[in-house]
Amino acid sequence: MSSEAPRTDDEFRTFYRWSYNRTLRRLMAKSRLSQQDAEDVLSKAYQETARYWRQIRDPQGFLWDRVSKRLLDHVEKAKRAREREFLCDMTDNVIVQAAPAEGEPEQCVGLLRLNELFGKLSADDQKVIALAYSGASKEEQAKAFGSTVGAVKVRLSRATTKLRKMVAQDQEAEVR
To answer: Could you give the CA distance from residue 1 to residue 60 in angstroms, rounded to a whole number?
Structure first.
């Protein structure tokens, strides 16, 4: 492509055919996106490139700029989705159990308090604990977080440690 502003739709089609596979491979290599996600990002970038085609002086530079911006949008959208994602409705009392007929009601009160403390954890901490205690494998947990098994193990360890500390502090406060 020349450095002069492109003028025709035929030139855009030629540019698209020439650059699509290269740009897709580059995006997948740099971002580690799945092919479907990379194609979604590229689709938006090419749409913007087509919209401004007649004014663009450097098509490759403009396209990669748009790919970079759409990639950032995609990452932010995925991050927000992960933050909202729960296996269950966290307004339900997931941890609460009924007191046994002849049992001590204090156990249920303790579970209610544990549920309140659990709700004070970050969304990711709640999610990793819920996944682990619902029986999800380490691989399933890693997939849910988009990370490695090792990272999930560390995240779970830190989340349970936080919850244990909160429970211990709560019990100390009750004693006083």
So the answer is: 9
pLDDT band at 170 (very low <50, low <70, confident <90, very high): confident
At 115, the pLDDT band (50, 70, 90 cuts) reads confident
Is the whole-model pTM more than 0.85? no
Cα distances from 11 to residues 8, 17, 25, 47, 59, in angstroms, run: 5, 10, 22, 15, 11
Task: Kindly write down the DSSP assignment for every residue of 135-172, as one continuous string.
Answer: T--HHHHHHHHTS-HHHHHHHHHHHHHHHHHHHHHHHH
